[in-house]
Description:
By secondary structure, the chain is of the alpha+beta class.
Amino acid sequence: xxxxxxxxxxxxxxxxxxxxxxxxxxxxxxxxxxxxxxxxxxxxxxxxxxxxxxxxxxxxxxxxxxxxxxxxxxxxxxxxxxxxxxxxxxxxxxxxxxxxxxxxxxxxxxxxxx
Length: 114
Ligand SMILES: [Zn+2]
């Protein structure tokens, strides 16, 4: 007799920004970054600073701050920061390069749907 190996369903897929985005947008029923932030209870703030970075997120306070000096669409920046946020929520670990890659592919899925 053989034991059956069962894989427990996990709400989040393995570290993959694109798949994470598909799960999250289905869960919250929107691909719109602003609506997604609102439904997920993430506060969005606006500020201006030298555009070395375009946005920041704080998981502790569930806050994303967008840099109004960013030379790109703030919707795109929000989508990217949401990628960081949900990756952290999902417990994804990894160095900065890994985290950036996840946020980047997460944002691409959202922005493709706009
Ligand atoms: Zn980033």
